[in-house]
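Now for today's protein.

===
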Amino acid sequence: MDKARVLRSIEGAFLREDLPEVVPGDLVRVYFKVIEGEKERVQVFEGLVIAVKNSGVNKSFTVRKVSFGVGIERTFPFHSPRIERIEILRRGKVRRAKLYYLREKSAKESRIEEKRES
């Protein structure tokens, strides 16, 4: 067995199959468990997926939202046990893999057209 195959077999135990496929342009709501001292609560982060990086156990995605005129980005590890669930609110129609150009645009300008299912 080569090293890559051994690593894939070990990583396979940590991959999550219960989450939907997230692609750039999607409007998502991520329910993330936050631990503060002894307490644990679920924090909701809703925004636009602007990037998906890597694959396998290292896969992560970046979500951007504008709150009170300030852009906020958060990167989530896709296979993290702290992610309770991901809701896809809307699929966006984009022609890029990374939507970093939205950082320079205002909230109104950064709206993305919805993908039509045919």
